[in-house]
Specification:
By secondary structure, the protein is mainly β. It has a single domain, classed as Neuraminidase, CATH 2.120.10.10. It is built from two helices and 30 strands. The strands form seven sheets. Strands 1-19-18-17-16 form a five-stranded antiparallel sheet, with no helix packed on it. Strands 2-15-14-13-12 form a five-stranded antiparallel sheet. The longest helix has 6 residues.
C-alpha cells in the first residue's frame, strides 16, 4: 500500500467567504429561445447565437467514405470524456481538427467527435460529429458526456462563433440527450441552450434529491484581477436554474475546472486548477457560498485538469497527474515520490502533464492514501471517468494532442481493488487501450506540418 501522509487542515485556515448568489440570467444570458418561425431558427437564414446547432451522423451504412471528418485527415485531438449506458455500451467524445491545434477563443476548424464501443472498449467506431463550421465558420470546444439523475446520457457541445462582439451567445453551450444509448446511431433530442459560458469541461454534481450543479467558467476573464468567473449553476430536477454562485476571485486560478463532491456531512468540497497545483474550496450551504482553503497539501495536477468522484463505497476517487514541482538552481524541476518516499526527478517526460494516476481517499478527501499509476507515456492529461453497473471504473485521457505519432485517446478500466493494491488485481481490468489514434489510420501530424 502507498501511503501519502498529507493532511488537509479543514479547520483553522484563513478562509475567504463568498456569500452571494445571483440571478442565473445575469450570468448565463437570456436563454429563452425565439419562436420556431423566428428567422434565427430557420437555418440558413438569419443566423444568430441562438440558431440551434446539430449533430451529424458519420460512418453509417451508405455514407461516402471520403467525408471531411474521417480520421485519416485529423492532425490534432484531445480533451476526452466518457460515459456508459445501462447495457454497457461505452461512449467517448473529444475535440479534433484537420487543420490546426486548439486556438481560443473561437476554435476555428475544430469539431467534436463522438465514438462508441459495444465490446467493452476493445474496438471503437466514430458515429457522430458536432461541427458548427457551417454556421458562420463556428468552432467547437470542450465537449461533454454525462449521465443525468434519470440515467439518460447527455452530450454538451460548446460552440464559438465570431459575431464581432454583437451577439451575447458568440460562445454557447448546447445540450442533447440520447434517446437510445444502446444504438450506435442513436436518435437525439433537440438541443437545449444552457448559456453563454463554458459549462462543458466538468461533469455536473448530482444531489440526492435529483437537482444538479454544473461547474462554469468564463475563460475570457482569465488573468483579469477582481473579475468573478469561477461559478456554479444549480438546476432543479426539470432543468430550471435555481441560482448561480461563485468562488471568490483568485488570480492564481487559470482554467479552474472545478468538480465538487458531496461529503458525508453534506458539505461540498472541490479542487480547482491553479498555477502551482490544485487549490480547494468548500461550501456548507449547498453551494450558495464558498470558502477558499488555499493550496492542497499534496501537490498534483499542476495547472491542469483533475477529477473528483464519490464512489458507491463512500471512498472518493481522484484522477490526476502525479507530478510535483520545485525550483533547483534557478530552474523548474518536475519529480514524483516513489513507493519508498524517495523523490525521483522526471528525466524522459519533463512536464507536469504525465503520470496519470488514480487515487482513493478513505476520509472524504482529507488524504489520498492509495494510488495506481495509469500512464506515464509522454504528455498525458485531461481525465474523465464513469462507473459501470458492476462498479468498474472507466477512465479516459489524452496523449500528446498534436505530437507526431501520438494525439491518442486512451481508455483504462480499473476497480477499487486495483487502486487499493497499487496494481491490477482484477482479471477484467486493463490499462491504456486505444480509443483513437489517427496515425494508426493513415492520419496524424507529419514531419513538416506546422500546426
Amino acid at each position: 500500500m502507498i501511503r501519502i501522509t498529507t493532511t488537509l487542515a479543514i479547520i483553522g485556515f484563513a478562509a475567504v467567504l463568498h456569500a452571494q448568489t445571483v440571478d442565473p440570467m445575469s450570468v448565463l444570458g437570456d436563454t429563452t429561445m425565439p419562436a420556431p418561425d423566428d428567422v434565427s431558427q430557420t437555418f440558413p437564414y438569419g443566423i444568430t447565437g441562438k440558431t440551434p446547432p446539430s449533430l451529424n451522423k458519420v460512418n453509417y451504412e451508405g455514407q461516402k467514405p471520403y467525408h471531411r471528418h474521417r480520421i485519416n485527415l485529423r492532425i490534432f485531438q484531445g480533451c476526452p470524456q466518457v460515459e456508459i449506458s445501462a447495457g454497457g455500451r461505452l461512449w467517448v467524445t473529444w475535440f479534433g481538427s484537420n487543420v490546426q491545434a486548439e486556438r481560443a477563443p473561437y476554435h476555428n476548424d475544430q469539431f467534436s467527435v463522438i465514438a462508441t464501443s459495444a465490446d467493452g472498449g476493445k474496438t471503437w467506431k466514430e458515429v457522430f460529429v458536432f461541427d458548427p463550421s457551417e454556421l458562420l465558420g463556428g468552432g467547437a470546444s470542450d465537449p461533454m458526456l454525462w449521465k443525468d439523475p434519470q440515467g439518460n446520457i447527455r452530450f454538451i457541445g460548446h460552440r464559438n462563433i465570431d459575431f464581432q462582439g454583437k451577439d451575447d451567445f458568440a460562445s454557447s453551450a448546447w445540450e442533447f440527450t440520447m434517446l437510445d444509448p444502446e444504438d450506435e446511431h442513436t436518435a437525439w433530442s433537440s438541443p437545449r441552450l444552457l448559456g453563454n459560458k463554458n459549462i462543458s469541461v466538468m461533469k455536473p454534481l448530482i444531489f440526492p434529491d435529483g437537482t444538479i450543479m454544473r461547474s462554469m467558467d468564463d475563460f475570457r476573464l482569465v488573468g483579469r484581477p477582481d473579475q468573478e468567473r469561477i461559478r456554479f449553476l444549480k438546476e432543479d430536477i426539470d432543468g430550471k436554474p435555481i441560482f448561480v454562485s461563485a468562488l471568490p476571485v483568485d488570480n492564481d486560478a487559470v482554467f479552474a475546472e472545478q468538480m465538487p463532491i458531496i461529503r458525508k456531512d453534506g458539505s461540498l468540497f472541490t479542487f480547482y486548477r491553479a498555477r502551482k497545483g490544485q487549490k480547494f474550496a468548500e461550501s456548507f450551504d449547498g453551494g450558495k457560498s464558498w470558502k477558499l482553503g488555499g493550496y492542497y497539501p499534496m501537490q498534483f495536477s499542476i495547472n491542469t485538469k483533475c477529477i473528483l468522484k464519490t464512489l458507491p463505497s463512500g471512498r472518493v476517487l481522484l484522477v490526476a497527474n502525479d507530478v510535483q514541482m520545485k525550483d533547483k538552481d534557478g530552474k523548474r524541476v518536475y519529480y514524483y515520490t516513489d513507493e519508498s518516499g524517495m523523490q525521483r526527478e522526471l528525466v524522459k517526460n519533463k512536464t507536469s502533464r504525465t503520470r496519470m494516476t488514480a487515487y482513493l481517499s478513505d476520509d472524504d478527501g482529507k488524504t489520498f492514501t492509495h494510488k495506481i499509476l495509469l500512464c506515464d507515456d509522454g504528455q498525458i492529461s485531461y481525465p474523465s471517468a464513469t462507473l459501470s453497473q458492476d462498479g468498474s471504473i472507466y477512465i479516459v485521457y489524452d496523449q500528446g494532442r498534436g505530437v507526431i505519432g501520438q494525439h491518442t485517446i486512451f481508455l483504462s478500466k480499473i476497480t477499487e481493488a486495483d487502486i487499493l493494491a497499487g496494481e491490477l488485481v482484477n482479471d477484467e481490468s486493463f490499462l491504456n487501450n486505444i480509443v483513437s489514434r489517427p496515425s494508426d489510420q493513415g492520419g496524424g501530424r507529419r514531419e513538416g506540418d506546422d500546426i
